[in-house]
Design brief:
Shape: elongated
Helix content: 40-55%
Number of helices: 9
Structural class: alpha/beta
C-alpha cells in the first residue's frame, strides 16, 4: 500500500519492514531474503529508510515486483536482483509535492505566523507557497528527484537508448522494464522464490 515511515493498527510502516530485514540479517538460518514489493510508493523518507537497510545486507536480497512505483522502487533498487511479476507495472521515478489548496487558503487567511527574529529562513518554502511562489518547493522536490535518479543510475544497468525516458517518470510493464534495465528478469512468485534460494545457496558456499 501507501508507504509511510511508521505503521498503525492495521498497516505496516517502513519501521516494521526495516525490523524484518534486521531480524533476517541476524538469523543464521536465513540464507537469503525474498522482498515481496506491491506498492505505488508514498513518503520519500520511507523509501530512503528501506533503501538504506537493504544496502546494509549481509546476505542476498531478491526483490519481487508485483507493482513497484516511486518510493517502492527507491526502497529496493539496491537489491542483488530484481524480478518483475508477469503483468506488473514498474517505474514512476521522480518526486512531487501535492498542494491542498483548501488548506493553503485557510493557513493564509486564518492563521498568522510569528517567527523569532533569528528564524528568517524557517519554513521558507511553505511561506513562499502561501504567497503563490512555488519555486522553493519545486527546488526541494527537484533535489529529492536528483538523489533518487542517482540511486537508479548507480544500481541499475539502464539501457542508454531509453535512459532519458526511464528517468522522466513513466510506468512500464515488466517486459518493458526488463528491456530498459529496471529489472533483471520476469517470472512467477515461485520463480522468484527459487531464484532467491539459489542466490542464498551460492552466497553460503562462497563464505
Amino acid at each position: 500500500g501507501v508507504m509511510q515511515d511508521e505503521g498503525g493498527l492495521c498497516t505496516r510502516g517502513a519501521d516494521d519492514v526495516e525490523a524484518d530485514f534486521r531480524r533476517a540479517y541476524a538469523d543464521n538460518g536465513v540464507d537469503s531474503i525474498f522482498f515481496d514489493v506491491n506498492s505505488g510508493g508514498g513518503m520519500a523518507s520511507a523509501g530512503w529508510r528501506l533503501n538504506s537497510v537493504i544496502k546494509e545486507r549481509n546476505k542476498p536480497v531478491l526483490s519481487y515486483y508485483r507493482y513497484s512505483g516511486s518510493a517502492a522502487l527507491l526502497a529496493s533498487v539496491a537489491s542483488d536482483e530484481i524480478m518483475g511479476a508477469l503483468g506488473s507495472e514498474i517505474g514512476s521515478i521522480g518526486a512531487y509535492i501535492p498542494i491542498d489548496k483548501v488548506l493553503m487558503a485557510m493557513l493564509k487567511e486564518d492563521i498568522e505566523f510569528i517567527y523569532a527574529q533569528q528564524s528568517t529562513q524557517k519554513n521558507g518554502p511553505l511561506m513562499a507557497a502561501l504567497r503563490l511562489d512555488y519555486e522553493p518547493l519545486r527546488k526541494a522536490v527537484t533535489k529529492t528527484a536528483a538523489a533518487f535518479i542517482k540511486e537508479v543510475e548507480t544500481f541499475r544497468p539502464l539501457n542508454e537508448t531509453f535512459k532519458e525516458e526511464v528517468l522522466s517518470g513513466p510506468m512500464f510493464s515488466a517486459s518493458e522494464a526488463k528491456k530498459r534495465g529496471l529489472i533483471d528478469s520476469t517470472g512467477t512468485f515461485t520463480d522468484g522464490m527459487k531464484r532467491a534460494r539459489l542466490l542464498g545457496k551460492r552466497h553460503k558456499q562462497n563464505r
